[in-house]
Amino acid sequence: MSSCFFYPGANKLYTLLAHPLLMNLPKGGQMIATEVTTPFFVPMKVAAMAAFLISLPYVLYQLWGFIAPGLYAHEKRFVLPVVISGTVLFFVGMAFAYFAVFPVVFGFITHTAPQGVAVMTDIGKYLDFVLTLFMAFGITFEVPVVVVLLVKMGLVSVAKLKEVRPYMIVGAFVVGAIFTPPDVVSQFMLAMPLWLLYELGILVSGFVSKPAEAEAYQPLSEAEMDAELDRTAAAEKPEPK
Length: 241
What we know:
The protein folds into two domains: 1-141, no CATH class; 144-210, no CATH class. 73% of the residues lie in helices and 0% in strands. It contains ten helices and no strands.
């Protein structure tokens, strides 16, 4: 139902989404619709996307209200900041893609067309491409949250994260090569934030991890073991009637 609210202004929202490409099109270039139903369904997709983004905080709040009763007090204190920071970082990732990546990517693509080729992008294909990059950068900016969660749950240590750093750097460039157009600039613009956010996750994890994690295990001495056994025996001794 919320998407119906955005549908009357969906064309203006699409124009806003298409602005980075339109600004880089050569003189006389324009966007086209190659299918009969595209001019109708593309605004619907835009309206649905806007409705999802606007309602995302409320959906996460309702999800939080559902799972909160089953959590311990210390878990409640930790999960709520994770939900809030995850939402904010996702929007920051989308904003980074729109304002920093799109102008560079579309400038590169439109200026590499062969001479005599008119650049006229289909509006449906463009929307799919934009949504893919939005998701890629939104999920990429969730890396610090994922790293902190893994450390907090004890699945991995900060030392291990530092140890696998070289593999993470290589993986960041592989992800950049997969989810961005085939140019070095856009690949770097996804890989570098991914790497830096990984480092940020390690830094934050160092503050939120338990101090006892770094302490080596110290077995009880004989005297401490005898005292513990005496306390256990005294606790189990039946009281006199």
